[in-house]
Amino acid sequence: AAAATRLSQFGVRHVAKGIGRLSSEVIESGSGSHVTMVGGKRYLDFTVGIGVANLGHCHPAVTKAIQAQVGTLVHGQVNIAFQKPYLELIEHLIPNMPHPSLDTFFFWNSGSEAVEAAVKLARHATKKQNIIVMQGSYHGRTFGTMSMTRSKTVYSQGFNPLLPGIFSVPFPYCAQCSIAQHSSQNYSSSNCCMDPITQLELLLKRESAPSDTAAIFIEPVLGEGGYVPAAEGYLKRVREICDKHNILLVTDEVQSGFGRTGKMFAIEHWNVRPDILIMAKGIANGMPLSGIVSSRELMDTQPPGTMGGTYAGNAVSCAAGVAVAKAFKEEKILENVAARSKQLRGMLDKLWAEQEIGKHIHDVRGLGLMLAVEFKPGTAGSIGSKVQAKCKEKGMLILTTSIYDTLRFIPALNITETDMTEGCRILEESIREVVA
Ligand code: PMP
Question: Ligand 1: distance of its center to the CA of 254 in Å?
């Protein structure tokens, strides 16, 4: 315990305070759906590193692949030559893409870098500049992606000036557009919210002409904006608008990709073809790796020399990615997501339906194992953070999301029925105790 305290205090003193942190404990190890802290405290982990270790911590096959690759080639460098795991990963990814036109890849390290790569490609290919994003979106922390992020001001506050030419429209989700719900001034008794497609069309007429607009970036399920799936029919209409105006549709699946929503990519729920798809997080179960994919015709509008990066598509990360792709098939991961999602969602819906508990709940939503509960704004302050603290006391890690009072649940996609039952028990108990 003394060693744990000393390490924790050292971290608090010497690590940048700008990194927001759920806990100042020190993680020693992770295995499956659990992490163990220095000092021995063990937690059921419903964060898996913010939706990264989708196959659980230290998945044996992924660890084995990493170990083997470390002894073969650590760093090849993409501007020198191809490397085997990189090409093998592409071979595994192609059949899993949401559309057969998506067959040409560029890998990078982080989600933010991949979003930046998509912006560069969209501008280069269309010879246009403006970018439209969704309100509530999160695209990263680099200058470009910070300028595109619309989920919380903390990500951009104090860092101005941001990149120009970024416009935003409301994300289509009724539970969050009712003004009365979230405004302290209930100035209108009528629900005056405007159809989000109309708002997009107005933006293209008033602020960013189609002839200046390169791309629309969308997370099919808002991540840091509250685990909000796009309303039915919306993405199809956006696709039509993009086709009409020669604007590219870019889906940011950094958080929603690789099985998180119950399909390999969330966009499959709506059966819409993106021009560029952005991936990261779950792709390599914790090794740094991200990428973009498009048609060959689109990707190759960028000539040799325009793309690259010292560590981009690192060989060890790609080897981990190959092991992830194999495990997905062998372990029938998507079937488990469906079953465990039902379990968790069932518990949340049950609480929502109860009069005493339900009156504090504004919404239960999400897809697959990307689920959230939003509490009603109350006088007692944030219910979510109190539930989060209670869960931690009881041995379970969960995260909040968005500017609203929302808890999100991102367990490992291969979480066992027993661990999910335990997670549901802790969560239900914590919610009951907090709102009682
Ligand atoms: N896009 C989305 C949808 C994300 O959720 C994130 C990370 N939370 C990013 C981009 C940025 O990824 P990274 O932190 O790896 O740069």
Answer: 6
The angle at the Cα of 310, spanning 90 to 88, to the nearest 5 degrees, equals 15
Closest by Cα among 409, 403, 408, 405 to 362: 405
The DSSP bridge pattern shows strands 406-409 and 276-279 to be unpaired
Say if CB 182 and CB 377 are below 8 A apart.
yes
Distance 115 CA to ligand 1 centre (A): 8
Reply yes or no: is the peptide bond before residue 161 cis, omega within 30 of 0: yes
b/e burial code for range 389-403 (CB count within 10 A of at least 16 → b): ebbbebebbbbbbbe
**Mean per-residue pLDDT of the chain:** 95
- CATH top class, domain 63-182+193-330: alpha beta
| Closest atom, ligand 1, to C-alpha of 224 | 5
Concatenating the DSSP letter of every residue in 421-432 gives HHHHHHHHHHHH
Q: What's the CATH fold of domain 2-55+332-435?
A: Aspartate Aminotransferase, domain 1 (3.90.1150)
pLDDT at residue number 377: 83
> Which residues, in sequence order, are CB contacts of 313 under 8 Å at separation 6+?
78, 83, 86, 106, 107, 108, 289, 291
The pLDDT of residue 177 is: 61
- Residue pLDDT, tens place only, 105-114: 999 999 999 9
| Domain extent listing, the chain | 2-55+332-435, 63-182+193-330
By DSSP bridging, strand 370-375 and strand 406-409 are antiparallel
107, 146, 255, best to mutate for ligand 1 pocket (most atoms within 8 Å of CB): 255
Task: Annotate 275-302 with b (16+ C-beta within 10 A) or e (fewer).
Answer: bbbbbbbbbbbbbbbbbbbbbeebbeeb
**What residue's CA is closest to ligand 1, atom 1?**
139
> pLDDT digit string (tens) for 387-431?
999 999 999 999 999 999 999 999 999 999 999 999 999 999 999
pTM for the whole structure: 0.96
pLDDT above 70 (res 253): yes
Closest C-alpha to 196, from 118, 136, 254, 251: 136
User: Can you give the pLDDT at residue 216?
Assistant: 98
Mean pLDDT on 342-370: 97
Helix (H, G, I), strand (E, B) or coil at 241: helix
Note the pLDDT of residue 180: 44
What per-residue confidence (pLDDT) applies to 173?
81
Average of pLDDT values for 334-340? 98
Residue 31 bridge partners (DSSP)? 34
